[in-house]
Amino acid sequence: MNLRVLPWEYGIRNLLRRPTRSLLTLGALAIVSILILVTVGFIQGLTKTLDVSGGKQTAIVFSINMGENLEYSSIPMSSGDVVAGNVAGITKTDGVLDVSAELFLGTQLQLEDGSETFGLLRGVTSRVFRVREQVSITEGRWPEPGEILVGSMVETKLGLGAKHLEVGDAIELEGESWKISGRFAAGGSVFESEIWCRLTDLQQATRREDLSLVAIKCEDDAAFSKLELFCRQRYDLELQSVAEREYYATLQRDYAPIRTLGWTMVGLISIAGLFAGLNTMFGAVIGRTREMAMLQAIGYSRRAIMLSVIQEGVLLGMGGAIIGALVSLLWIDGLAIRFTMGAFELKVDQIAVLAGCAAGFVMGLLGSLIPGVRAMKQDIVLGLKSI
Fold first, then answer.
1. What residues does each domain of the chain span?
2. Cis peptide before 90 (omega within 30 of 0)
3. pTM for the structure as a whole
């Protein structure tokens, strides 16, 4: 007797014979897939935001012993002038193209409706656009005294939900009312979560005469080295210099435990989906005991029956993954969320979709493998006697 392989359509027909059970399982696996894609989208969004923060040609000078939070950095204005005068050059031969003195802090804000929230505020001069070339005003204009610019992700950072801050709206911060003169974008970087104002205005409002950092646009690697050497030689200023991208790369490493936790959650969510697949496929095998015995009796191999069961599980797993991917691409990709360093968008990119599809395949495969082995070991005589 020649052993035959079950046709591909057999597994599809079996799923359609039990539409309620198949749809429930498909829905459960789709939800699992969406949860996986949200988690991976969070990891990818956080990573990309930090990747694009900081210019390739930008170095930052800030005070030593401040950890990795620029809010704690304090450079006396006299030191800032020294940096601007001696390091910036400001001659092209020294490799320094431009300088942006900045004051950065977190502060309590009050909106026009009286609600209070916490935001990130940066005092800058108009030269900031020469140093941070990824930043551009998309609406309105450069602020006059008593006015501010808001980044494109500020509403998310402030937890405003669907409310949109318009040019001309007022925000109270540091005990004063500030009018929004414009909005800016920064290429998806952390700066989009910030509120910018004139440096002198912020210093007056906070009664501070210091700076948090000096951002310097360098022409080449030699300029980075000169800047670092200057900070080492002028140890009396208690300053340090680092390439801005290296600074944000350090933050990437600091957030590594969060990414590890995210991938751990992906694994745990996948296990939950695996049990959903196991439950469905065990029910399918038990309910078709007699049918499978008859298939063996007419010449189909045990391996063919096992592969058919696995096929059904993989179809359910991949179907759930595809549905989850479509839902995530349509409604989750680009969704803005708040985080400690500001706000960023979830990124359902190729890696996220591949992770979701791989998880769907594995859930379907492993969820049907044990029931498939059970079907392969089934005794023909006992199976034919079953009801």
1. 8-51+256-385, 65-237
2. yes
3. 0.83
